[in-house]
Write a structure and sequence with these properties.
By secondary structure, the protein is mainly α. It folds into 4 domains: 131 residues, Alpha/alpha barrel (Glycosyltransferase), CATH 1.50.10.20; 157 residues, no CATH class; 104 residues, no CATH class; 50 residues, no CATH class. The chain contains 21 helices and no strands. The longest helix is centred in the last third of the chain and has 29 residues.
Length: 483
């Protein structure tokens, strides 16, 4: 409750960011189940949603284009409109949501992705990740979107991912995230977090990517997990924007990754939440972009990070067919990641007579989903065959073999595993890489002292194994570790 006699809150942020910050605040309420028509904060959410609708222009853009970063603000407000509409079913919000999505599609560079200005032939991963998330969300709530925009956006993010380091760059392949010129980049070193890699993981999984069968995704997840949240003012590690994308990504990557990320996230955020006076419940805007977004932005990103399990269902656990008795075997096979068994069950269902039109349509969509997954898995096997990380390649190929069985990806993966077992050179390199993996697991990267010890251990490993690919991987792993 506001204390009129207490100290006023600081951290107002840049007023040009009001549309975007309002969008993030609304998303935080919506993540808690508060909608314009239900929940104890329904009236507040209703007023909050009404405001960006009133800022919408004739071409669908929410807010003005006075700020160079206006597209971020439009996308944040668009996501809030979409979730408010989809979670409440309030048909009155649909026209504004459709107009907002139409502007997203208009803004995109022809044949490419998104950045700050409409159709200026400049792209970056950060804006593109928000745009793709908005399009996927719109699609989930029954709004028709341009499938070509989804395809080209995903291709762009792939093109910004370095196949060697698995790092996704901001606007150049494998580069670091953006910072303002001058002291900002010194205060908040880019290598402290993997924000764009996390954004790429989150979006690519939402678009249907498989963390197991896609080499880049598996490597990207490991990279992000190496930079878990730490509340450290001294070395500039506090980055709520990175933690938000990391939480979204690791939630999609699977329970094991999410639990490890959540432990670090809770350790960073919960002890540092204010509990005094008018500041109670907030977080101080001392993170990378806190000065720009202000206290509300920092707090909203913290809430959204903590709320990741409630915002998006884990994609791999969604049922591809209606929840009916006749589809149970197929749905169970999909949930168990047995694509070969799912294929057999689907074939039996497709041969049945007397199916309702809605069931036929559901079977068609399920078949399309299996075809897409199979194609991705085949491409994944081809990439893993060329991978330098042999431990990850071996584990991924084993998983693909188990998941796809007699289907094409399973056969290809099993064949390559056999070739790996027969090659003395590959076996020798694999043994060295297993040693490296064991070293990296020994240290708690949330603590500076442990990160220094890891650097020392990696330097000794490199000296002991010159000329190996494992030594090069150890050098890459040292980036960002304190001396």
């Amino acid at each position: 409750m506001l204390d009129p006699d207490g100290t006023p809150c600081d951290g107002p942020g840049n007023p040009s960011h009001d549309v975007g910050v309002t969008g993030l605040a609304l998303l935080a309420f919506l993540a808690d189940g508060q909608t314009p028509i239900q929940g104890r904060h329904a009236a507040r959410v209703r007023r909050g949603v009404t405001w960006p609708v009133r800022q919408q222009t004739g071409n669908g853009r929410i807010g003005t284009d006075a700020s160079n970063e206006f597209m971020y603000f439009h996308l944040s407000a668009t996501l809030a409109l979409l979730e408010a509409y989809g979670l409440s079913g309030d048909a009155a919000l649909r026209p504004a949501a459709e107009k907002a999505i139409a502007y997203v599609e208009h803004h995109r560079n022809p044949g490419a992705a998104w950045r700050y200005q409409p159709r200026d032939n400049e792209n970056d991963v950060s804006v593109t990740a928000w745009a793709l998330t908005a399009l996927v969300t719109a699609q989930d709530f029954g709004i028709v979107v341009d499938s070509e925009a989804l395809r080209l956006g995903e291709l762009y993010i792939d093109s910004m991912t370095d196949p060697g380091t698995c790092r996704t760059g901001y606007s150049e392949r494998g580069g670091w995230s953006s910072r303002r010129a001058g002291e900002h980049s010194k205060q908040f070193p880019r290598e402290m977090n993997e924000v764009l890699t996390a954004a790429a993981v989150a979006v690519e999984i939402l678009l249907g990517g498989d963390p197991v069968s896609r080499e880049n995704l598996s490597g990207q997840i490991r990279l992000v997990m190496g930079k878990k949240p730490r509340w450290s003012v001294q070395d500039g590690a506090i980055d709520l924007y990175a933690w938000y994308w990391g939480a979204t990504a690791m939630r999609q990557a699977g329970e094991e990754h999410w639990q490890a990320w959540a432990k670090a996230l809770h350790g960073a955020l919960l002890p540092n939440q204010r509990d005094d006076g008018n500041f109670a419940g907030s977080w101080d805007p001392i993170d990378v972009w806190g000065e720009d977004g202000g206290r509300i932005c920092t707090t909203a990103l913290a809430v959204l990070s903590l709320s990741a399990p409630h915002r998006y269902a884990e994609v791999g656990k969604l049922k591809p067919l209606p929840d009916a008795m006749r589809f149970r075997a197929a749905n169970d096979a999909w949930a168990d990641r047995r694509r070969d068994v799912f294929d057999q069950a689907l074939t039996r269902l497709e041969a049945q007579e007397g199916l309702e039109p809605i069931e036929i349509a559901a079977l068609s969509r399920a078949r399309e989903a299996l075809v897409r997954e199979t194609a991705r898995a085949v491409a994944g096997v081809e990439r893993w065959q060329k991978a330098e990380d042999l431990v990850a390649a071996r584990d991924a190929l084993k998983t693909i073999t188990e998941e796809f069985g007699a289907l094409e990806p399973g056969r290809l993966a099993a064949d390559h595993l056999l070739r790996m077992q027969k090659s003395k050179l590959i076996k020798a390199e694999l043994d060295v890489q297993l040693q490296l993996a064991a070293i990296r697991k020994r240290f708690d990267l949330s603590r500076d002292s442990e990160r220094r010890k890891l650097r020392d251990a990696l330097e000794k490993f490199i000296a002991a194994h010159p000329g190996t690919q494992a030594a090069e991987m150890a050098r890459a792993a040292m980036v960002g570790l304190p001396r």
